[in-house]
Write a structure and sequence with these properties.
This protein is mainly beta and 831 residues long. Helices cover 15% and strands 38% of the residues. It comes from Pseudoalteromonas neustonica.
Amino acid sequence: MNFSSLWRGKAPRLTTTFAVLTLSTLSSALVAAPLDKADIKFIGPIAADMQLKPYQTEHQDAIINALLPSIQQPTTSITVFGEKLKWQTLDKVNALTLGGLQALKFTAHAERFSQGTLTLKGIEKAQLFIDGEKQSVTKESYELALPQGDHQIVIIAEQVANWHDVDVDFNPKAAIDRLTFSNKEQHGLSAKQLFDATTVSSLSLAPDAKHYLVAKRHYQDSTGNQANVITELKNDDNQTVYRFESGQPSNIIWSPDNNYLVYLLDGKLKQLNRKTLNLKVIASNLEGAGDFAYYDNNSLIFSWSKSPAADNSLTKHYQGLQDRWSYARTTSQAYLLDISTGLSKTISQGPLSHSIEDFNSKRGTVLLSRGVQVMQASTHPTTELVELNIANASNTVIGQFATFNQAKYTGDDIYVTAGPDFKDGLGRNLPENMLANNYDGQLYLLTDHGKNAAPLSREFDPAIGQLEVLANGDALIKVTEQDTIALYLYDKSKQRFSKLKTGFDVVEQFSFSNNRSPAILVSGSNASSPQQLKQLSINKNTATTLWDSKPQAYANTDIASLDEFNFINTAGVEIKGRVYFPSNLDKNKHYPALVYYYGGTSPVTRGFTGRYPFNLWAEHGYVVYVVQPTGATGFGQQFSAKHVNAWGQYTADDIMQGTQALLKQYPFIDKNRLGNLGASYGGFMTMLLTTKTDMFSASIAHAGISNITSYWGHGWWGYLYSGEASKNSYPWNNSELYSQHSPVFHADKVTTPLLLLHGDADTNVPVGESHTMYTALKLLGKDVDLIEYKGADHQIFARDQRFDWWDTMLAYFDKHLKEQPQWWQYLYPEK
């Protein structure tokens, strides 16, 4: 169900869900034709004894909007004021007049973007909603502009003189504007489902595993860009024992004695008694404080940041490379807070910022990391790991490292996650002539206060991410494993990695208990199934599902089928990929295809939804190929190391070779209707590919890099990322890399229509990167469009912008790959 209302200048362009349907009657003539009443569902009378209709009161919209969600649901009946009302078809309605309200519901299915006029006859007072969005009316008529897919239409009638005279007519704008109508509930996946559906936004499991806290987030039309979040405390029977209604807590921590839950809310640090549910305010005025943890039963350890006073001067004098960051001069120190009095005391001091890595209250020590100087002019800034003895305030330097991610105690030893080059290449598993990619995280063990170090994951291909330590000293780690995000257990005594059976392609969040048989609370999803919440048993390696979003948000929904598709490139390396197919795939037809990639140092993982909704694109009639080209982490160090000093060299070949292999494997894909797209480094790859091949008929680059030199010098983190992507290479010692691998230097070779998308507040890849390519292509007379999203940074987060962004990409491809320019012209009319 691909809902998009698209009322420019009125409500935001959206996309909805719920009661959805398929095809039956077709209006093809350019004259108004009534819908078959058998295709329209009817329910009523609703509140037959209603003395005044909503339009006769001061609260009409509020009353109707409150009823709407119940009407939208795919149910056979609703109960109003204790009376059960059943849905029937409109042709079964015999009464001339009815009291109260009545509702009509049906689906309009568009095979392509379609426009026309919907007219209500015989209904004197009504409100009409398409995909949950109220429509404006001109007399009895409503103007429709519906993208391909299923669209739910709801009419709530307040005044009807004679139901025998009621008709709903559709008049298409042109011969191509065809809609089919039905009352069935099965529908295709929609954008609104993907964005609005309830998801787990945070979770925390108590140390004894007898309670857990879970926050769930969803969106809806009435609140627009504002997320609706509900946080609940649940027991081990999955029953809610406490619900946060007035505000949402953050920084959730549990006391070691299992008696209390502490959290931040409304600027206050609060303590909830798990048995009595009594509340106590521990401290207030904690602006800038975070990362709270129980140091012991009597005190908390936390970080407290302080930003400098606002600078109202006319100029800004840069003190170093990091000064381009808005937060560069904010300092953070470690503090202890006494729970009984709320008194805080500092345990570290400036001018260097300190981050708390871990602590051991029995030994009275804290692991802190810090930069060796305030402004470090280096592509690999040095991190110093120190151990602080709280009793005497003495610091012991564990080491200084050019690559460092995280450190945790394990007994008397220390786990560290860092790149392969940690401690002079201790974790390298590469030929001597290859430079390591330090985004490929590795696990190390430091002993004897850092004097000795051992690599633990050198032969382990997954890239180490988040690290947690169990009570017995074993490590629980979240890893990137090819195109999945998995959980592994590292057994310290056996020096062995074991994969935990989560049942997820992508583990999103996890929390664990510290009892003898540790439990893990974990949320995640699969490429073709939405998010779930599960509890795992480490000892048994089993999982129990606690919550599943599919029945709630994706009932009666068609979801794309999926194939694994891998090929061997010309270098003899297997390149992984996957292919999404439209849910109604007919292999006797020819389909356009979209090729998506990132190409940077991370794979495109298999989450059900995300910024780039592969399942949605498939529902719009595209075969979608997601390829994992050379250079990504999670496939072993040699694979990721090829990202270094390549800037598209291997990646472009893999994408082109993979696309050719795809066409050979699936003959129902039309080779003349191929589109490609990517974002950030993937946007760079899109621009680069337009200079290398004409196999694609349309290309989209979001937040892409057109000039490696300007990105390196202007992007907030450009020089840092280039420290790996262009290791030891600079514009002055490797000008060929910086120029000849930059797409703008080959703009004259572009023949493919190109859409450039960018947030105008992007600090990561400045919007000038798209402007540079746009300027070049415009001067060359090429087919290029540039669209900026106002106020958006590197990613498009806001709900209204996200729907607009998704619509824009699909409309562009519809124009070039389906010869259907109407949607694009509707969104971006020529002036």
